[in-house]
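Posting this for the archive.
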Amino acid sequence: MTAELNVALLMFIAQRAAENRILEAVHRAGFSDITLAQARLGARIGQNGTRLNELAEQAQIAKQTATFLVDQLEKAGYAERTPDPTDGRARLVRMTERANDLLEVARAEEARIEADWTAHIGVRRMKHLREALTMLREITDPYWTQGT
C-alpha cells in the first residue's frame, strides 16, 4: 500500500510543474536569458517597485543573493533600480518594459495551465480548490493583504 502524500507536498508538486511550464513558455518566446531563480525573485517585484531588502525577505534568501539576482536581472534588461520617492536614501527595484513583455507570456501560460487543470479535475473541483487555497493564504502568506 502506498502512503498518501501530505497536502503541502502535493501543492509543491503542482506549483513546481506550473513554474516549469511558465519558464519553458517564456524561454520559447525568446526570453531565454532568465533563470528560474531570477524569475522567482522578479515575480516578487511590486507594481510600484520593491526595496531590495523586502525582495530578499519575501524570497527568504540572503540580501547578497538578492543583490546578485537583481544585478543579473538588470544586465538582462528586466529590472532597474530607481530612487525611492518616500526615502531619498533608499532605492526601488522596478520592472522594465522587457519584464512586462515577459509577464504577458507568463500570464498567458498561467491561463493555459489553469484551463488544463480545470479540464482534468472539473470546474467544481477547481472552484473548490481555489476557495480552499485562498482561505489557506490567510494563515500562510505573511505578505497577504485583503483584496490582493
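Residues 7 and 25 are 27 Å apart (CA to CA). The helical segments are 7-28, 36-42, 52-59, 63-75, 97-121, 123-140.
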